[in-house]
Each structure stands twice: as C-alpha cells, then as structure tokens.
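From: lab user (bench 3)
To: helpdesk
Subject: output format question, protein + phosphoenolpyruvate

Hello, I'm new to running complex predictions and I'm not sure whether the block I got back is the full result or only part of it. Here's what I submitted:
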Amino acid sequence: MVYIVANWKMNKDSKQSKSLMNEIVCFDFYDSSKINVIISPPTIYLSQLKNRRSDLAAQNISNYSNGPYTGEISSKMVSEYVSYVIIGHSERRQLFCETDEIISEKINQCNNENLKSIVCFGESLESRNKSHHLDFIRKQLDNIINSYDKSSINNLILAYEPVWAIGSGNSATVQEICEVHDYTRSILNDNFGKTIGTTVPIIYGGSCTKDNAKPILANLNVNGLLIGGASLDLMHFKSIIKEANEVT
Ligand code: PEP
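Helpdesk reply: Thanks, we reran it on our side. This is the complete output you should expect:
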C-alpha cells in the first residue's frame, strides 16, 4: 500500500474545503486497493468532509483524554471522523513546543482509541549540515518506537520530514531520503523483528511535487508521501496521485 497524505494545515475556508474534497473523491484513475489517499483538513471541517472514498486524518489531538483543557480536542472526539492523526509535525514541535514526552502521550491517546498515528520525525538543517542527522533522528525514533509494542505497532505510520525541506521548495534528494528510510527500517527490524518491522509504512514529506514524487516513491523503503503545499492545488495533487499510481 502507498500512502498519499495531504496536510492542508490552516488553509482553506469551509466552501473551499468542500469543493476540493468533492473533486478528490471523484478521482477514479487510481487503484484504491494500492493507494490510500488520506486528507488532513483543519479539524473544524472534519465532520463535513467525512466520505467513503478518502480517509481523513486529524492534524493534531490533545495529549490529555478529557478535562479542563480549553481549546483542546481529544482523540476520542476526532475518532468519530478520522482513522488517522498526524503527530509530532515539526511545526508543532517548534512553534508549539511539543516535546518527545508530549508526542509519546499523544501516541498513547491514539492507541487508546485504536487510531493510526502518522508520526513525523526529521532533522534540523544544523544537524544535517554537521552530518549529525542520523543521531538526531535516532533520538526521535527511539522515543516514538518506545510508545509501541507488538500488539499496537500496526497503528504506526512513520513520516520522515527533514525540517529544512518542509515548505522550502528544496526537497531532500533521493539518496538522502533512502539513507534515512533504510536506517529507519533497520531500527524497526531490530526492535520488532523483520516480519513485523517491514510492515510499518515509512513515508516522506518535504517539498514533494509532481516532478519528484515518482523518483522518491520508486524506492523499497519509501511507502508514501506527506504533502503540504502541493496538496492545496487540485491539479497538482491529482498529478502526484497519478505519478504514485504509475509506481505501484
Ligand atoms: C508538511 O508540512 O508536512 C509538508 C511536507 O509541507 P510541504 O509539502 O509544503 O513541504
């Protein structure tokens, strides 16, 4: 299965969201048994966008299950509408001070509701420039993987998103992506054994476009794409799914 995840972030109004989703659900050119298109709109639109063709993902949930947390939304609340939740996006880590501990708590909240977590990890530009990126990533991955056991690991999708590639128009190269995805796969295999380790999807995000989608997806340990900017444009997003369809 190839996962194509669209992260709309805090973009589109109600009418625009409905209109874009209506177009996406009409895509009939791809094989949905091979490609899973997951749309992550702003939370307030989840109820109006629920449909039979595309899965939905929440962009965030609270690390608490319920209580006096003004403005927060729990995993149970979103579970009525979504099967997936994006956790640990670098924007949340950086702008909203989400620590590894908070990310573990959010993963636990998802596991409690049997929601699948799309958990983001990826190095800063500084660590990449110093060639410390694998150490940087290892720490994040250890924290994520420690939140799972053999019975819950099928709820995990890992998303490698180098911080410097997000929204920059400067995607990681195929070689850089493969280095990290292959490393991540080896860590999963070491922790869970090869039979289980190879089943965890590892997707890539960071300035994906219709032009780089295919060469990125053509690699053994790249199981999908997480797309920000390019997912907001109907024709561009459609082209990316077409490219993915050719690779599967
Ligand atoms: C993202 O924010 O997860 C992302 C991948 O954004 P973009 O595609 O715009 O780089």
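A quick orientation on your result: The beta strands are 2-7, 35-40, 55-58, 84-87, 116-121, 156-160, 202-205, 224-227. Let us know if anything else is unclear.
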